[in-house]
Specification:
- This protein is mainly beta.
- The chain folds into six domains: about 90 residues, Sandwich (Immunoglobulin-like), CATH 2.60.40; about 100 residues, Immunoglobulin-like (Sandwich), CATH 2.60.40.60; about 100 residues, Immunoglobulin-like (Sandwich); about 100 residues, Immunoglobulin-like (Sandwich); about 100 residues, Immunoglobulin-like (Sandwich); about 110 residues, Cadherins (Immunoglobulin-like, Sandwich), CATH 2.60.40.60.
- About 10% of the residues lie in helices and about 40% in strands.
- The strands form 16 sheets. A four-stranded mixed sheet has the order 1-7-6-3. A four-stranded mixed sheet has the order 9-16-15-12, with no helix packed on it. A four-stranded mixed sheet has the order 18-25-24-21.
- The termini are far apart.
- It is found in: Cell membrane.
- One of its GO terms (molecular function) is calcium ion binding.
- It comes from Campylorhamphus procurvoides.
């Protein structure tokens, strides 16, 4: 079972390969399917929106693109294998598939298969060959090579020659695998019988159907010329640097002829050369010097082949092969293309998160084409090679938007040539805010002082908190979090405005009921989830003089109605033998206020005998100021004023009745009688009020009679 599970598990749940390989024929119409990319990467349709599949290609042309369904890889532009790769086989285009959540890169290679879309062609449609009639049978004459840009079986495979008894065809294969044709003389020529011979050379490829190209060959039979030209080399092998300037001498071919006169004069020419090479090289017909006439570019073509013909004045020819290798120089600057993956970057992104892909291309080869990338500056990012030409820009350490909100990253690509070439590009990465900072109050603890009897809605204090985050994450609102500001079941004493942080009194404060209270304020941001912090607020209520002194002794109720309840009148008995300073009584009063508002002082406001008694200013003690005499009335009435020190001062009065008697029995008869003298001021006040009321009534009656009289006359 374990063995079977190990076998079936990869089949049921295949892991996406590190590199996907597709193969398509060239010249497919736009929109043609290359392969089910998403399926081959193991992506299900449900997870496609979140994975954000994209493709990245380093080529200037985007040969491939994702279809409308974003799952299949399709052809985006015309693909000509010969134009992209030339004779290189296999022809492979490389691209990267990028997915996110989690991030991953897959390397995709697309092999372009050749189709037989090119027919063989000759550089010259008409070829003229001069042969002396004494040329021995078996002599060979190069006919040149046909050109077919296709590869494999679709390339040029064979040559055919129209039938002629005097000539045959020899097909030879070059070291690079290409084939060229040589004309072989089978029999002696006879100029007197036939001066010209016409042949047709056909080049055939191996495609299906077969394509072909032809060249017409004209052979002129000339009189005898003893010695044909002879080149110093059968094959000239030349190596040229690609940066040689135009007009430079590339190489020289040389041929000699043992004849004399015009038969020894040799003229040089290209007998078989591709059009591309003919535009780059010129051959001096007299000296054999080959000069550069166009720009050589190793990246465009690395190898050229030509056949040089040397012809003497008598028409005899010789041929030599020229193989030209172009050597690479470091003349191409590396190119950089950047694909941002995350921009802006959330500041809570973990290290090793990929934020961008950098694709590097250098058209040079060897060390000249080997490129290293590096990043300038000490930044929290690093470059990591993903493939030969691709780098990943990765977060190296934690980001903090509150410290750095954007990074200007300069990436430099430098090759290993001598001298090295380099290029650089800049990438601006912004850091997006994450709610990672709680609001901070300007003070951890606030204190406020408010006078009592304040108006409801009065401003108590304004608090403020600052949040380093941005946007909604940094928008602070304020709330009451708790405290002694409101007891259970009672309305709170203060409220806080959510936006401004202003704390207002909900009602009037009373110092005598609540001298101070504490509460907790919470500052909360608008992030999700929200972050908050708290601060304490202590409100101190300041006292105002809003309470008058209250007399505890003598009781105020006892002095309210002495006639109605004489037994309730408080009195003090002072013996007539009392000496000066005798303590009669003590006025006791309290004030609910505090501080100076509660400091009390006492004054004797009214007394039957003002000189007989004195009242202590701060103690409230009533003492005799002199000795009691027999002339003093037995009943004495004292009115004391109790006053605080507030601004303005508040006061209260206390009435004290004193009986001068040696004993309580002597004082009782005095207490049973109504104190007429004490009531006289009250009766006087009554009569005055009554008289004023009668006068007012008479005045109003007179006015009314006057008005009625005038109305009657009218």
């Amino acid at each position: 079972r374990v063995t079977m599970l190990a076998v079936l598990l990869p089949l049921c749940c295949p892991a996406p390969p590190e590199q996907l390989r597709y193969a398509i024929p060239e010249e497919l119409p736009r929109g043609s399917l290359v392969g089910p990319l998403a399926r081959d990467l193991g992506l299900s349709p449900d997870e496609m929106p979140a994975r954000k599949l994209r493709i990245v290609a380093g080529d200037e042309k985007q040969y491939f693109a994702l279809g409308e369904d974003n799952t299949n890889l399709r052809v985006n532009e015309r693909i000509d294998r010969e134009g992209i790769c030339g004779a290189v086989s296999p022809c492979v285009l490389i691209l990267e598939a990028v997915v996110e959540n989690p991030f991953d890169i897959f390397h995709v290679s697309v092999t372009l298969q050749d189709i037989n879309d090119n027919a063989p062609q000759f550089n010259k449609e008409y070829v003229t060959i001069e042969m002396i009639e004494s040329t021995p049978p078996g002599s060979r004459f190069p006919l040149g090579s046909g050109r077919d840009p296709d590869i494999g079986t679709n390339s040029l495979q064979n040559y055919e020659l129209s039938p002629n008894p005097l000539f045959s065809l020899l097909v030879r294969e070059n070291s690079d695998g290409t084939k060229h044709a040589e004309l072989v003389l089978e029999k002696m020529l006879d100029r007197e019988k036939e001066r010209n011979h016409h042949l047709i050379l056909t080049a055939l490829d191996g495609g299906d159907p077969v394509r072909s190209g032809t060249a017409q060959i004209k052979i002129n039979v000339t009189d005898a010329n003893d010695n044909p030209p002879v080149f110093t080399k059968e094959i000239y092998k030349v190596r040229l640097m690609e940066n040689l300037p135009e007009g430079s001498l590339a190489f020289q071919v040389k041929a000699t002829d043992n004849d004399e006169g015009t038969n020894a004069e040799i003229t040089y020419s290209f007998s078989d050369v591709a059009d591309s090479a003919r535009q780059l090289f010129s051959l001096d017909p007299r000296t054999g010097d080959v000069k550069i006439t166009g720009p050589l570019d190793y990246e465009e073509r690395k190898y050229y082949e030509a056949t040089v013909e040397g012809k003497d004045g008598g028409g005899l020819t010789a041929h030599a092969k020229v193989h030209i290798d172009i050597l690479d120089v470091n003349d191409n600057v590396p190119t950089l293309s950047i694909l941002p993956i995350l921009n802006p970057i959330p500041e809570d992104s973990v290290p090793s998160t990929v934020v961008a892909l950098i694709n590097v291309r250098d058209r040079d080869s060897g060390e000249n084409g080997e490129v290293n990338c590096n990043m300038d500056g000490n930044l929290p990012f690093r470059l990591e090679a993903s493939s030969e030409n691709t780098y990943k820009l990765i977060i190296a350490s934690a980001l903090d938007r509150e410290q750095v909100s954007a990074y200007n990253i300069t990436i430099t690509a430098r090759d290993r040539g001598s001298p090295a070439l380099w290029s650089r590009t800049e990438l601006v990465l912004e850091v997006s805010d994450v709610n990672d900072n709680a609001p901070v109050f300007s003070e951890a603890a606030y204190s406020a002082y408010v006078w009592e009897n304040n108006a409801a809605g009065a401003l108590v204090l304004r608090v403020s908190a600052w949040d380093a985050d941005a946007g909604a994450n940094g928008r602070v609102s304020y709330w009451l979090a708790g405290g002694s500001a409101g007891a259970a079941g009672a309305a709170p004493l203060v409220s806080v405005e959510a936006r401004s942080g202003a704390v207002y009194a909900q009602r009037s404060f009373d110092y005598e009921q609540c001298r101070e209270f504490a509460l907790t304020l919470r500052a909360q941001d608008g992030g999700a989830p929200a972050r908050s912090s708290t601060a304490t607020l202590r409100v101190f209520v300041l006292d105002q003089n809003d309470n008058a002194p209250r007399v505890l002794w003598p009781a105020p109720a006892a002095a309210a109605a002495p006639a109605a309840a004489p037994a309730a009148v408080p009195f003090e008995v002072v013996p007539r033998s009392a000496e000066p300073g005798y303590l009669v009584a003590k006025v006791v009063a309290v004030d609910a206020d505090a501080g100076r508002n509660a400091w009390l002082s006492y004054e004797l406001l009214q007394a039957s005998e003002p000189a007989l008694f004195r009242l202590g200013l701060h103690s409230g003690e009533v003492r005799t100021a002199r000795a009691v005499s027999d002339r003093d009335a037995a009943k004495q009435r004292l009115v004391a004023l109790v006053k605080d020190h507030g601004q303005p001062a508040l006061s209260a009065t206390a009435t004290l009745h004193v009986v001068l008697a040696d004993s309580l029995q002597d004082a009782l008869p005095e207490l049973s009688e109504r104190p007429a003298a004490a009531d006289a001021p009250a009766e006087l006040h009554f009569y005055l009020v009554l008289a004023l009321a009668l006068l007012s009534a008479l005045f109003l009656l007179s006015v009314a009679l006057a008005v009625l009289a005038r109305l009657r006359r009218a």
